[in-house]
Amino acid sequence: MRNETVPSLIASYHTHLLLEKSLSVNSIDAYMDDLNKLLNYLQGANKHPQEVALEDLQDMVITLHEMDINPRSQARIISGIKSFYRFLELENLIQKDPTELLESPKIGLKLPEFLTVDEINQIISTIDLSQAEGQRNKAILETLYSCGLRVSELIGLRFSDLYLPEGFIKVEGKGGKQRLVPISRTATKEIHLYVQDRHLIPVKKGFEDVLFLSRRGTSLSRIMIFHVVKVHTELAGIKKSVSPHTFRHSFATHLLEGGANLRAIQAMLGHEKITTTEIYTHLDRDFLRSEILEHHPRNKRS
Question: Is residue 271 flagged as an active site residue?
Answer without folding.
Answer: yes
